[in-house]
Design a protein that fits this description.
With about 190 residues, the protein is of the alpha+beta class. The chain has one domain. The chain has two helices and ten strands. Strands 1, 2, 3, 4, 5, 6, 7, 8, 9 and 10 form a ten-stranded antiparallel beta sheet that branches. It is elongated, with a radius of gyration of 21 Å. The relative contact order is 0.20.
Length: about 190
């Protein structure tokens, strides 16, 4: 029992220390241009890109969605800029002429005019780019899960997206792991006192 408790404690400690998102994605409701950004990290190395989806894919107010509408699916992804850091050296990235792809979980909005709610979604993307210094091709792709928030306006009878798709905060996951570690330590102390 004692060995199992220690192994569980060590496992949770390692998990809480190593919880860092490899891919962070933000997809804002599209009002007038760029609404997408992605950051991929591996230690000190990273790739950061930004761009947008076409109007009509994931719209911002004043464009709204009728109750029962489907939101999400596939879209072109147009990248404006990118930076890549490898081994302490930074490089500028440029997207190729071909747009990238973005796919978001398809979901249906409620038909009853629910005031506000969040929908869990996943996004994956892929875009071909070129390292401007070396001329090497770079394919940037990633996947992340998060949520989108909506609210309903009775006057217009439409739903409006209010918050961006957001990946979970790695710090929050770390706190959960640390909290579990504390609970196990407390339980261990109680078992020992008996």
């Amino acid at each position: 029992m004692k060995r199992l408790l220690w192994m569980t404690t060590i496992f949770l400690a390692l998990m809480s220390c190593s919880v860092f998102a490899d891919t962070l994605i933000k997809l804002f409701p599209n009002c007038c241009g760029d609404n997408f950004a992605a950051l991929q990290r591996n230690g000190a190395d990273f790739i950061l890109i930004s761009g947008g989806t076409p109007p009509g894919f994931f719209d911002a107010p004043p464009v709204g969605y009728a109750p029962g509408s489907y939101v999400g699916g596939g879209s072109d992804l147009f990248i404006d800029s990118g930076i890549e850091q490898i081994g302490g050296q930074r490089y500028d990235l440029q997207a190729t002429q071909t747009p990238g792809t973005l796919d978001m979980t398809v979901f249906r909005l409620p038909t009853n005019g629910q005031e506000s709610f969040q929908v869990p979604v996943s996004i994956d993307f892929s875009v071909d780019m070129i390292n401007l210094e070396t001329g090497d091709p770079v394919t940037v792709s990633g996947f992340a899960s998060g949520h989108v928030s909506f609210f309903f306006v009775e006057f217009t009878g439409l739903y409006y997206a209010t918050e961006p798709f957001a990946t979970p905060e790695s710090g929050t996951l770390g706190l959960v792991g640390t909290g579990l570690l504390g609970v196990l330590t407390f339980a261990r102390g109680r078992l020992r006192s008996r």
